[in-house]
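About this split. The held-out portion is used to measure sequence recovery: a designer receives only the C-alpha cells and must propose an amino acid at every position. Recovery is the fraction of positions where the proposal matches the reference. Here is one held-out target exactly as it appears in the evaluation file.
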C-alpha cells in the first residue's frame, strides 16, 4: 500500500515537472525566434539606411555637418546598444566628403603634412567636423614620424598616407 501511495504522489510531480520543462523549452524557442526576427529587422533597416546614405551627393559649395557633434561615435559602424546604423551612415558620408575637401588643402613639407586652412568655413564644413579632421592630420603626421606610414598622392592628386612596407625582401 505504501508503494502505491508513493507512486500516486510521485507520478503527478513528474508530470508537473515535465509540463514546466516543456513550457520552458517553448519559451526558449519563442525567445530565439523573436531574437532572430529582431536581428533580421535590424539588418533590413541598416541595409536601407546605407542605401539611402550612399545615394547622397554634395556639391563643393554645400555646407557639410554631421547629424550629431563630430566624434568617433558619430561615425562608428553602428549604435552599440541597438545595433542600428541610424545617422551614422549619413555622418560617414559627410565625413568622407569633408575629408576629401580638406585633403585638397594639404601641403607636404619636411615629410609632414600641413593643412592650409584656418576654419571649417573655408571649405563649407562645420567647425566640429573641421577640428576632427585637423586632429586626424595631426595623427597622420605622428604615424609618418614613427615611420608607420608614408606620404603619397592619391588618384586625385591630393596628399594622403599609405602604410610603409615593413616586409623586408
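Reference sequence for scoring:
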Amino acid at each position: 500500500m505504501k508503494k502505491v501511495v508513493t507512486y500516486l504522489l510521485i507520478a503527478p510531480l513528474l508530470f508537473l515537472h515535465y509540463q514546466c520543462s516543456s513550457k520552458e523549452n517553448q519559451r526558449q524557442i519563442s525567445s530565439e525566434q523573436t531574437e532572430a526576427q529582431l536581428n533580421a529587422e535590424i539588418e533590413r533597416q541598416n541595409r536601407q539606411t546605407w542605401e539611402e546614405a550612399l545615394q547622397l551627393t554634395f556639391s563643393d559649395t554645400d555646407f557639410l555637418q554631421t547629424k550629431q557633434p563630430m566624434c568617433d561615435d558619430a561615425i562608428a559602424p553602428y549604435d552599440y546598444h541597438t545595433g542600428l546604423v541610424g545617422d551614422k551612415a549619413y555622418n560617414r558620408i559627410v565625413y568622407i566628403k569633408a575629408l576629401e575637401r580638406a585633403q585638397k588643402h594639404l601641403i607636404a613639407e619636411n615629410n609632414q603634412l600641413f593643412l592650409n586652412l584656418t576654419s571649417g568655413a573655408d571649405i563649407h564644413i562645420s567647425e566640429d567636423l573641421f577640428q576632427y579632421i585637423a586632429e586626424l592630420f595631426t595623427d597622420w603626421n605622428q604615424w609618418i614620424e614613427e615611420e608607420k606610414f608614408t606620404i603619397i598622392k592619391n588618384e586625385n592628386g591630393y596628399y594622403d598616407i599609405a602604410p610603409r612596407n615593413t616586409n623586408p625582401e
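Annotator remark: The helical segments are 2-54, 87-103, 127-145.
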